[in-house]
Amino acid sequence: MLYREAGQFKTTYAEDMAIFPISQDRIALAVLLGIAFIGVPLLATFHIWPFGSDYLLWAILLPFLILALAAIGTNILVGYCGQISLGSGAFMAIGAYSAYKLATGVHIPLAWLGFAVSIPPLPVLASILLGGLIAAGVGILFGIPSLRIKGLYLAVATLAAQFFFDWAFLRIPWFTNYAPSGSVNAPALDFFGLIVQSPIERYLLCLLLLTLMALLAKNLVRSNLGRQWMAIRDMDIAAELIGIRPLYAKLTAFAVSSFIVGVAGALWAFVYLGSWEPLAFSIDRSLQLLFMVIIGGLGSIMGSFVGAAFILIVPIMLNLIPTELGVPLSTETITHFEFIIFGSLICYLLIKEPHGFARLISIGKEKLRLWPFPY
Amino acid sequence: MIALGQFLEVLIGGLMSGVLYSLVALGFVLIFKASGVFNFAQGAMVLLAGLALVRALDLLVANGFPLWAAIVLGIGFSAVIMATTAWLIERFVIGPLVNQDGLTLFMSTIGVTFVIEGAAEMIFGSDVYPLRLFPTDAWFVLEGLFPGGILVNKLDVWGALIAGILVAGLALFFQRTKTGRALRAVADDHLAAHSVGIPISWIWFVVWLAAGLVALVAATVWGTKLGVQFSITFLALKALPVLIIGGLTSIPGAIAGGLIVGAGEKIAEVYLGPSIGGGIEYWFAYVLALAVLLVRPQGLFGERIIERV
């Protein structure tokens, strides 16, 4: 009844090409953005339920925003370009450590050439974005095998990136500025004189970056480039025959994806963790991101958000439920139950809807258009 | 001569531990061949088999059974557990997901991994349980040729022997039995196999059972080596490059890949490791796999990937 596009005529090309062509969608998005940008900060400032404590912001919203960003990046590579990657965690790590090095100053002693490369510490925002760019560069490098290897073989090949960088950040002390414990601390989050410190400021920073990147990603996948990616995904040989260069399409997908994932990694380290070890970006992180895009829906930006929320929140809920209900279980048993239920839930979802939440949403929209009349 | 002796020792040690990787990789190959499922749960299955075996053994020995009876009963119990798991997986996960694409199937096996890990540890406990089925002491050979001889671990020799028997057994099973022939038919084209009357869900159950039994064998060897503990599941990750190098569809490839990876990473660790910080065993196999794939995208022994438009 409410969700009908009857009477909404498109009179210009621009209207036809809009991201959200139906006005109800635009209103819903505006309301959502309003809540996210104005509602949440207001509630949090005045400590109104559910923001009585910072728990919701710290434990759920902040990681959700950052991982949603990483999921969007992964989705570009896996969902839009069809190149399965198990190395997203490594690209998050590359983003994080490059940003860290740039923000604390880079010094490369090239004794054998007789001089040293020194870059003074850069501002935080520049470091984060450059960290993303460096991740993009490495992404291109590790994307080269994709020109020859396909499917699950490629997935295992990307594991090489994962394990190599896990090792590199653990064993090469240069990356951690020779920190004896191997764990590093993020610099103060100084944005042009504005120090981001309280949870709500961190939240707003991530939200802003996420919104910008999501918009960028959405527009990229609707563009010429995005269509090339999808053509490669659907059938690479046919795409090649109609004049799409696989080299260009695949490597741009790797670059864009790694950039977004790298920025997400830098945010994860700087804004969420504060101090971190390579373990924060292990293979588990890669699998988590892959779950997000598959449960959310391959080839859907919207799906990345839903998938990220699901994968992040379900384990937290599973962990909370027994304590809330007062069931006397040891933490160990709860962890095992969590594993079992989470695993079964994933299998169940994959069986019921292999195309993820994105498909469920579009089915829901179709149903809503007719609701409540059957015509 | 000392250098050569050391090299041989490293090489043999590497080859032997490579055989142990192959034991895990074999389970992957069996399932991939027959159902096109890239089974991430193989490591978890090794854990489950090992835990079931070691707990049953402890219980039986504590109740006064003689050791040989306890071993026989324990292995029987563990095999029954693996059969149940195989049936559950086929019935509730792989069966309903038939005809989905490889990535979805792969992710579903990761879901299965979580379930198996959680269930195995909940039922059988989550400590480190030592398992002593094979001798683990060292052996010195060729003492006449090299000063001090070459150190060989007896367990590794047992592992190699078992792997050899296993491969021979599997080859016989695939080539000579009716079920084996049906398995190959399903692997080739499951729709065609179905249409000539081969019961697919039964075949898939058999395959998962075979993978489960291979996991049980791997668990006896690895459990003796490391003790049965959660970290055994990471073996799955170690077995992936082995698979890729050998080719996803080839049983001899799994063995050859294991040998290459085992020898390669030990040699690299000993001769290359010290100069770049050590611990390169962690990623060397993957980089090796990447290099092999660049030359042969289907692995060394894999079937050529032919694409039709």
UniProtKB/TrEMBL annotation, chain A:
Pfam families: BPD_transp_2. The chain crosses the membrane at residues 27-49, 55-78, 90-112, 124-144, 151-172, 203-221, 251-275, 287-314. GO terms for molecular function: branched-chain amino acid transmembrane transporter activity. CDD domains: TM_PBP1_LivM_like. It is found in: Cell membrane. GO terms for cellular component: plasma membrane. Keywords: Cell membrane, Membrane, Transmembrane, Transmembrane helix. InterPro entries: ABC_transp_permease, LivM-like. Its main location: membrane. It comes from the Bacteria. The keyword 4Fe-4S does not apply. This is ABC transporter permease. It comes from Bradyrhizobium centrolobii.
